[in-house]
Amino acid sequence: MRVMCLGDSNTYGFDPRSYFGGRYPAESRWVDILAARTGWEIQNEGENGRSIPRWEFELELLQRTTIDDRVDLLILMLGSNDLLQGADAELTGKRMEAFLSWLPIPLSRVVLVAPPPMQPGAWVFEDRLLAESSKLAAVYRKLAESMEVRFTDAGTWGITLTFDGAHFTENGHKTFAEKLYQFLNE
User: Fold this and answer.
1) How far is the C-alpha of 52 from the C-alpha of 184, rounded, in Å?
2) Among candidates 14, 132, 121, 143, which has minimal Cα distance to 76?
3) Beta bridge partners of 110
4) What gap in Å lies between CA 67 and CA 46, rounded to an integer?
5) CATH number of the domain enclosing 117
6) Three-state SS for 8?
7) Cα–Cα–Cα angle for 143, 160, 184, nearest 5°?
8) Cα 135 to chain center, whole Å?
9) What's the predicted TM-score (pTM) here?
10) How far is residue 129's CA from residue 134's CA, in Å, rounded to a whole number?
11) Can you say whether the dihedral through the CA atoms of 9, 165, 153, 94 is positive or negative?
12) 55 burial type by CB count under 10 A (0-12 exposed, 13-18 middle, 19+ buried)
């Protein structure tokens, strides 16, 4: 099975202890853990700072280089950077709806994952961010139901976050991989 994981720095495996975009080792990144556990061919399309693609050039690039009919399953976890850049949960949901509507593959091949809510930390010090990140799962759940997309809420999985309040710890990555594996095999 050919799987693509499209996301932000938590999909990439960013280690916030590094200054230059360093990653956790492969054995500590959820995408690589999932690949090892399943034997699937998994393409990690995580990118530090990625928000929900909405500009024409972003969509064209994704269609040309990344998302095509060879993708059997697209695991999609985005939205945190939209919130960090000032969008609220409702606007982030509208951006996700537009992106899902654009996707060049059937929505039956998509799993939408709501990222865990942010926690107070070095990157998360505004009450607005805490509140909006806590609302995102409900917005995504409603969207997934209306568009008939598989959905799961990583906010219910007990993912541990680092000192910055936004990124997974190495143990958080391991928990995420295990919970996602369980969800995919239900």
Assistant:
1) 23
2) 143
3) 74
4) 13
5) 3.40.50.1110
6) coil
7) 45
8) 16
9) 0.96
10) 8
11) negative
12) exposed
- pLDDT band, very low/low/confident/very high, at 16 (cuts 50, 70, 90): very high
Sheet containing strand 41-46, edge to edge, reads 41-46, 2-7, 73-77, 110-114, 150-153
The count of domains in the chain is 1
State the amino acid at position 128 in one-letter form: R
Residues spanned by the domain of 51:
2-184
DSSP characters over 141-186:
HHHHHHHT-EEEEGGGTT--B-TTSSSBPHHHHHHHHHHHHHHHT-
Spatial CB neighbours of 72, under 8 Å, sequence gap ≥ 6: 1, 2, 3, 109
3-class SS at 102? helix
pLDDT digits (tens, 9 = 90+) for 38-87: 999 999 999 999 999 999 888 988 888 788 888 999 999 999 999 999 99
Query: Cα–Cα distance between 135 and 1 in angstroms, integer?
Result: 33
In angstroms, the CA 64 to CA 53 distance is 14
